Amino acid sequence: MTQNRSEKGLSGIEGKVVAITGASSGIGAATARTLASSGAIVVLGARRSERLTELVDELNAAGGHAIGLQTDVTRADDLVALVRAATDQTGRLDVLVSNAGVARVAPVADLDVEAWNAMIDTNLRGVLNGVAAALPVFRAQGRGHLVTVVSTSGLKIVPNQAVYAATKNAVRTFLEALRQESTDGVLRTTSISPGYVVTELNDWIPDPELRARAQESMRSIGIPADAVARAIAFAIAQPDSVEIGDITIRPTVQG
Ligand SMILES: NC(=O)c1ccc[n+]([C@@H]2O[C@H](COP(=O)([O-])OP(=O)(O)OC[C@H]3O[C@@H](n4cnc5c(N)ncnc54)[C@H](OP(=O)(O)O)[C@@H]3O)[C@@H](O)[C@H]2O)c1
Description:
By secondary structure, the protein is of the alpha/beta class. The chain has helices spanning 5-8, 26-37, 49-61, 76-90, 113-141, 162-181, 208-221, 225-237; strands spanning 17-21, 41-46, 65-70, 95-98, 144-149, 187-194, 246-249. It has a single domain (5-249), classed as Rossmann fold (3-Layer(aba) Sandwich). It is built from eight helices and seven strands; from the N terminus they run αβαβαβαβαβαβααβ. It has a seven-stranded parallel beta sheet with strand order 3-2-1-4-5-6-7, sandwiched between helices. It is globular and about 50 Å long. The structure holds ligand 1.
């Protein structure tokens, strides 16, 4: 972060309290940097607390306002604690960016049930846990914004991503239903669908050959994480009456 908030205040972001899950690397960390440099108060959650501490220190040293809390999104109580960290410190929560995710992709025939459960628990249950924690605060405040990172994997279905894509599309479906239930003007929902983005996501693919291929695709055509962060910032920066429903953001060369 090279500019302070007064130099770079992006209208609609300055002063907003934004909790971000999966903030210890990749898209979450880039979003924290982008929003903090635009004057948001960021409340960062992930499991790797040492990474969070480094990022919080970096953002605060650059004139931002960041706090971190070790958070495992598969645990409902951790999301309640993350939201409470925001409300205790600032009195409110304006936005929850549900970004934490895992992509332990493999052919279905491998029957890696443990990986399936990890993706369901993190990518689907983790988002639901965040909604359950944030929604009562949003309702009490009379305003709030859920920004959720899904994937182009749910838009273009390809082999090896069956469970991963299923979790992302389950979230997309859930958010559309929630949007339709929430037309009283209190809640905004935004789904962000990135394509290939250069992050650590593919480092956890169990099969070494599949992992190497996915890492190479990411390296060769992936866009930087801050491209997605800018899309998230755009959605957050809109006036309360304007809901950006879906943003798809992928490398220009991605098929
Ligand atoms: N990179 C891409 O090409 C791409 C494309 C489409 C969608 N996405 C989505 O973008 C999101 C961010 O991924 P990324 O690409 O930035 O990958 P990443 O660098 O691996 O980041 C994933 C983040 O999720 C966190 N996380 C994983 N499990 C968690 C849990 N149980 N509780 C809390 N945090 C957890 C990780 O932190 P800890 O390990 O410290 O908990 C990490 O901060 C994911 O939802 C992913 O599905 C990525």
